[in-house]
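Input/output pair, single chain:
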Amino acid sequence: MNIGIFTDTYYPQINGVVTSINLLEKELIKRGHKVYIFTSTDPNADLVEEKGKVFRFPSLPFIFFPERRLAYSGLIKLSRLVNRLELDVVHTHTEFSLGMMGIFAAKKNHLPIVHTYHTMYEDYLHYIGNGKFVTPSMVRKVSRLYCNRMDKTIVPSKKVKTVLEEYGVSSEIEIIPTGTDFQQFEPQKQTIHEIDQLKRQLGITGGSVLLSVGRLSQEKMSRQSCELCQLF
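Output:
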């Protein structure tokens, strides 16, 4: 199949959504599909390397998240691309600018459309005017309206599915956990002596060591703390 992935964030940006899309893209290509990325412009993007695979649309930094960009034009270009690439399905990974462009492309060309709901937006409202400009009720309404336009919505966990159902999403929801590339976690061949020496250098004493890697932020720390508590 020819698959069009629509996202507001893509390499060279680094975040969870980009990582998820990259893993999905690699796996789909491995299975013989053609994958095309539709995303926003980025001053640091390697346009030569991306040519023919990634299509970028004029965009501006989002006022509350300057590292994120929102496309503001390109529907004519998009229509031509969808026809030329002969897309079979549209897969959106954002509810914002490129997500709306994905809906436009699917509707205009009578294509099936699926969406991956990545972000629990209610956890991030403190970034937007301390929650004064965007309220939880607005998040619920936008999420419901967007997901109900999908043929299927993909979520990474049962928790997210439950939340969307509480929002009033009535379209089909399927749980597909975010993929992980286990090759990058291959254990190095280190001796017990080397491990003990490293622990001494880091001042670590006692038994097993649990390492949690993540962005230091209010919403991440509170969520990770709850998840860690469930492990013990």
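The radius of gyration is 20 Å. Residues 186-231 form one domain.
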